[in-house]
C-alpha cells in the first residue's frame, strides 16, 4: 500500500511533465518561467509570446513550458530536464537563471539556449533583452508631471543591473521635469509575492508618496494604489484591469516577434549565439495607453516616446552625475550599452543606498 | 492617521493568515499528526474563496467556501496517512504540490480580476477608543475570528475533556487507544480542523490581504505558519505572539527601507527570520519544558492492534 501512495505522491510532482513528454517529430521550443503563466505581469508576457509562437508555426512545433521554477539550484534541474527531453531551443526567462543556463548548456552542446536579461553567453547560449529603461524614462516624466508631493515610491525586486538601470532611468526622466523630484525605494527581495508587494506599497503610501511604480511581477501594488486613491504604473503586462482609474501607463513586454524570429532561425539552421538588446523601436516593448492624465501630460509622454523611437533621444544622455557626486556622462554624451548592462551605481538624485 | 497606526494596521493584515494557519496546524500536531501540506491547503482556500466570491458576489459565502475547501482537501491527507498509514512527511509535501496545481486550475478563469474586498465590521462604541479603536474594532470578520480561535483553542486544549483526549492521543496514541479513545476518528477531526483553518487563512489572502487571485499567491506563508507552530512550542498564545512578531518585523523593515536608514535591504529582509530564531533560542533554553510541550507521537503512524 505504501508503494501506491508514494507513486501517487510522485506522480503529482511530475504531472507537469506528462504533457511535455509526448510526440517526437515536432521541433520542441521550450520555456522556463520564474512565475506562474497567469501572474498578470512578467511571466504572463512571456507566455503570450509563447502562444504567438505556437500560433505562427502551428503543427510544426511544440512549446512545452515549466512554470514557477525557483531561481537557484532547482533551476538547473528544471533546465536540464527540459534539455534532456529533446528541446531544440530553450528560453530561460529570468535573470536568476543565468548561471544555471550556462552550466546546463555546457552539458548539452547540441541544444540551443536563450537567456533573457542576462549578460553571460556561450556558443550555444544567446541572450536577449528589452530596453525597459526607455519606458521607465517616460514613466519618470509622467510621474514628475502628475505628482503633487514630488515623491514617488518604487518597489524594486533585486539589486541587479536591470533594476538599478530602471530606477536611474525613472529618476532621470522625472528630474528632467522637476529637478527636486524624489524617489523612495523599497527592495522587496522577491519577484513574486503579492502580499509582500502590497505591504511595500502600503508602507510607501503611508510615508507620503503619491505615485507608485514597481519592478515586481504581480498586480498587488496597483490594487493598493487604487484602494488608496493614488496613481501607479503597470509592469511587464498591461495592468489596467487592476486599476482602471489608477494606471497611468505600463511597460508592456511583447516578446512574441522575437520568439518567432529565433525559432525560424533554428528551423532554418541559421541560429547563432547573439546578444540582442531591442527597444521601443523594435516593438519588443510597447507602452500601454496613456490614461488617467491630463492631455498636456499625455502629449509630452507621446512626444518623448516618439523621440526615443526615432533615436533622437537616448534616456541616458549627459550631463549626469553619479550619486557620489562624481561625473558619469558629460553634457550631450550618451551611455554605452556595456555600462548600462552592468549598472551598479545610482545617479545623483536617487534617495536610497544601493544594496551591495 | 499616524504612521504608527498605519504600520500596525498593515501588521495586522500580514499576521492574521499566519496566526490562522498556525493555530489550525497546532491542533493537528497536538493530536500527533504532522501535516506539511499547510501551504497547499492555504492556497486551495484562497482559490476557492475567490472563485465562490466571484460567483455569488458575497465574500462571506467565499469565506465559508474557503473553510470548506481547506477542510475537504485535508481529508485527502487524512485518508492517506490515517487510514492507509502512508508516510506523513511525504504525503504532506505531496499535498502542497497538489494544492498548488489544483488551485491554479480552479483560479484560472479568475486571473486578472479585481476581487471584492471584505468590508470591515465596525464595533459600536469600542471603535471610538482613540488609537486602539480603529486598530482592533474596525477590522474584517476574519481578524476577529483569528483572535477568537486562539482564545478558543487555548481553552479547548487545556480546559476541556475533548482537548485532554487530543493531547493524550498526541503524546501516547497506544495508551489512549487502550483507554478506549478513538484515535483515528479524533485525528481525522484534528486534521480537518487544521485544513479548515488553513483554508480560512487562504480566504484572508484572496479577500482581504490582496483581493485578487494569482497562482501560488500564498508565496510560502504556509511554511512560515508551520515553523511558527514549533516556534510556539505547541502553545496557542505563543502562536499569536509569534505571528505578530513576524508580521511586525516584516512590515517595519519595509518602512525602514522607505525611510532610507541605510541598512542593507538583504539584511532587513532576513530580519523577521533572524528575530524568530533569536526568540526560539531564548524560549527553548529550558529543555524540559520544551519536551513536555512537544507531542511525543508527532508524525508517528498508528495502527490499532484490535
TrEMBL record, chain A:
Keywords: Signal. Transmembrane segments: none annotated. Residues 1-23 form the signal peptide. The keyword Signal applies. InterPro entries: ABC-Purine-Binding, PnrA-like. It holds the Pfam family Bmp. Residues 26-308 form the ABC transporter substrate-binding protein PnrA-like domain. The keyword Signal applies. It comes from the Bacteria. This is BMP family ABC transporter substrate-binding protein. It comes from Shinella curvata.
UniProtKB/TrEMBL annotation, chain B:
Keywords: Cell membrane, Membrane, Transmembrane, Transmembrane helix. The chain crosses the membrane at residues 31-53, 60-86, 141-158, 188-209, 267-283. It is a multi-pass membrane protein. CDD domains: TM_PBP1_transp_TpRbsC_like. It is found in: Cell membrane. Pfam families: BPD_transp_2. This is ABC transporter permease. It comes from Shinella curvata. The lineage of its organism: Bacteria, Pseudomonadati, Pseudomonadota, Alphaproteobacteria, Hyphomicrobiales.
